[in-house]
Q: What sequence folds into this?
């Protein structure tokens, strides 16, 4: 499982790093004013669709269903089932895209009520309509990625999302070189979003042909049952982005708050993507096989390793983002139209959002235990509870503290979902944590806290010395602090006997008898 996890995480890391480059260029092009707010409201809608459909979300339901058909009826029946899912999902999303285009003014008004009776509303409508083709392409992309993951072909599905960011970066590079007006630049980038979805679909189809045939549209009882299972699971998988989208709805009444919230959340999504997407992608097939075989040892092994990886990566990432919030935001985004005041506001927002990161990752790590049992409704209820908590608190805290208050409400909503899921899982079937995990988890937490404290002290001492230095010097120091924190944390894990180099190499090289390929 570790090898598959690293494959998915590597693809996600590459995509997130390109995403940072994309967002840095976007900040330079649009800044944090009305043009940026309009574009980012539309773009967050696209991002929610991406999380609902891609990046591991559909695995929650399609992988167990596909494996069940393959084991019961063979590969031909599994391919026919996949063809029905591919055709039906694609047709449904084309229809939804067309209807959404017609109703876009109403959609944007609902997503950003603060834009009402302002020019920002029409800018957001125009941007969103240009992005709509992505919605149609996202359907087949979703199904192809999930089917490749079900067959253990993680690498292609993990790295194909890079094309999305590569296309946007290419368009923005041209716009920066030509020094185009921000409004025109927003329209060009919005149109590129649809093209990026087409590029991703073409690469998946060219390498994954034959896994979904014959292609057909079906709404028979089997398909309705599958969709009834899939939709709740997809919503749960996208719950972090739905929480941020709800925050953006409330923030739309405050100038620039949507932009601050968006750029802060982009930094949170790096560790969330590395851990959360990989957990959802790799754990669901592992746990499904264990549950179907009634292999308690395999279930305990998958759940324990998933929890260790989640805590071991999410907690130090949270502490690092809090300790280095200001220099990270300044280095990545403070260029062109993005000002020092925007940096300060975004850094404060990110600090509060980071407090919810461990909760988001826990939801990603614990939900597969329900998905593998084909129970998507319990995680959906937990996500709904967290959403309600976040919205209610955001309405109060947002009025008092602005974007930072909304970010704090999102973090509290995430913890509400995580605690609800833990409680329901313990009451329903009990989480299987082996002896190794019970020994390692407290030591992982201790190592992360020590690393976070020392990183904060080092940043407080070193960073003020370079405030007037060249940007490259500041970037080098920030990179040194991050690298030093990672090395020190790894050393603490070894010192506390959590892991060692030989064990890590064995885990990476190990291949499961189930035939997973990466």
A:
């Amino acid at each position: 499982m570790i090898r598959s996890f690293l494959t998915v995480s590597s693809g996600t890391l590459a995509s997130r790093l390109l995403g940072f480059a994309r967002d840095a260029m976007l900040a330079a092009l649009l800044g944090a004013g009305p043009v940026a707010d309009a574009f980012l409201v539309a773009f967050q809608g696209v991002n929610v669709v991406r999380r609902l459909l891609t990046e591991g979300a559909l695995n929650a339901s399609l992988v167990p269903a596909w494996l069940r058909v393959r084991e019961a009826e063979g590969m031909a029946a599994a391919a026919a089932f996949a063809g029905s899912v591919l055709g039906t999902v694609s047709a449904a999303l084309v229809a939804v895209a067309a209807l959404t285009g017609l109703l876009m003014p109403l959609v944007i008004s609902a997503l950003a009520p603060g834009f009402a009776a302002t020019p920002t509303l029409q800018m957001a409508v125009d941007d969103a309509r240009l992005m709509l083709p992505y919605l149609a392409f996202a359907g087949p992309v979703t199904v192809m990625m999930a089917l490749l993951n079900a067959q253990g072909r993680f690498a292609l599905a993990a790295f194909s999302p890079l094309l999305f960011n590569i296309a946007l970066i290419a368009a923005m590079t041209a716009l920066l070189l030509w020094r185009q007006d921000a409004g025109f630049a927003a329209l060009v980038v919005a149109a590129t979003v649809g093209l990026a979805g087409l590029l991703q679909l073409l690469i998946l189809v060219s390498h994954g042909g034959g896994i979904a045939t014959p292609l057909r549209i079906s709404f028979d009882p089997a398909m309705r049952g599958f969709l009834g299972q899939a939709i709740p699971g997809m919503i749960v998988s996208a719950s972090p982005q739905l929480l941020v989208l709800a925050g953006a709805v409330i923030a739309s009444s405050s100038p620039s708050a949507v932009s601050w919230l968006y750029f802060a959340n982009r930094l949170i999504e790096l560790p969330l993507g590395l851990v959360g997407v990989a957990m959802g992608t790799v754990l669901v097939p592992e746990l499904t096989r264990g549950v179907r075989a009634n292999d308690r040892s395999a279930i305990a092994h998958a759940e324990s390793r998933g929890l260790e990886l989640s805590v071991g990566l999410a907690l130090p990432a949270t502490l690092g983002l809090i300790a280095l919030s200001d220099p990270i935001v300044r280095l990545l985004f403070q260029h062109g139209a993005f000002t020092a005041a925007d940096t300060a506001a975004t850094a404060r927002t990110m600090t509060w959002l980071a407090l919810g990161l461990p909760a988001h990752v826990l939801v990603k790590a614990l939900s597969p235990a329900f998905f593998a049992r084909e129970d998507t409704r319990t995680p959906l209820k937990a996500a709904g509870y967290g959403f309600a908590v976040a919205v209610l608190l955001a309405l109060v805290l947002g009025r008092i503290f602005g974007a930072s208050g909304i970010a704090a409400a999102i973090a509290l909503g995430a913890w509400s979902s995580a605690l609800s899921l833990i409680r329901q899982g313990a009451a329903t079937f009990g989480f299987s944590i082996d002896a190794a995990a019970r020994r390692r988890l407290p030591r992982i937490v201790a190592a992360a806290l020590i690393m976070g404290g020392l990183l904060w002290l080092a940043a407080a001492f070193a960073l003020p010395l370079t405030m007037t230095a060249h940007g490259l010097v500041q970037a080098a120091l920030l990179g040194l602090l991050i690298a030093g924190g990672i090395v020190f944390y790894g050393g603490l894990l070894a010192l506390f006997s959590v892991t060692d180099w030989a064990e890590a190499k064995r885990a990476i090289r190990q291949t499961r008898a189930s035939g997973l390929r990466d």
About this structure: Residues 510-518 have pLDDT under 50 and may be disordered. The radius of gyration is 22 Å. Residues 100 and 107 are 8 Å apart (CA to CA).
